[in-house]
Amino acid sequence: MNKKRAVVFATAMFVAGGALAQQSTVNGAAGGAVTGAIVGGPVGAAVGGVVGAIAGTAIDPPPERVVTYVREAPMPTDTVVVQEKVVVGEPLPSTVVVQQVPDNPNYSYAIVNKQRVIVEPSSRKVIQVIN
């Protein structure tokens, strides 16, 4: 009975993963479970779901027009310099002022250590560093 339940679960996750893949990349618990089910069967689905939930917090890249806006924004006369390394997925220090990207409230940006950085406004996490 448990084997049948696991197969039904894996099949459901596979179908759900296919639906998610049409909108964007499949990540998180669903994507991990789908991948795990394909590779390791029902046990792989369970393990993949846990791993995917942890790894699924990866940040999707911002739209190209946001990247273009940040790339072309004028460099301020006084740039912020911080000792900490700017790392994708980590928040910027509170001393760094972030600017809203016009027409897109999901993204902000800052220029830190002469690097242009796209930031998630509510958490201040770095989404992308533009070189």
Description:
The model is unreliable at 14-27 (pLDDT under 50). Strands 1-2-3-4 form a 4-stranded antiparallel β-sheet, with helices on one face. It has 3 helices and 4 strands, in the order αααββββ. The chain starts with a helix and ends with a strand. Strand 3 and strand 4 form a beta hairpin. Helix 1 crosses helix 2. It has 2 domains: 2-55, no CATH class; 64-130, no CATH class. It is α+β, with helices and mostly antiparallel strands. The longest helix is centred in the N-terminal third of the chain and has 28 residues, at 28-55.
Beta strands, count: 4
| Class inferred from helices and paired strands | alpha+beta
Strand order of the largest sheet: 1-2-3-4
How far apart are the termini? Answer: 55 Å
Number of domains as seen in the coordinates: 2
- Give, in order, the helices and strands: HHHEEEE
Low-confidence stretches: 14-27
Give the quaternary arrangement of the chains.
single chain
Q: What does the average pLDDT come to? A: 74
Helical residues, percent: 40-55%
Number of helices: 3
Shape: elongated
Rg for CA atoms:
20 Å
Largest sheet: number of strands, sense, barrel closure: 4 strands, antiparallel
Percent of residues in beta strands: 5-15%
Keywords: Signal
Organism: Aliirhizobium cellulosilyticum
Pfam families: DUF1236 (PF06823)
Protein name: DUF1236 domain-containing protein
What keyword list fits this structure?
131 residues, alpha+beta, 2 domains, 4 strands, elongated
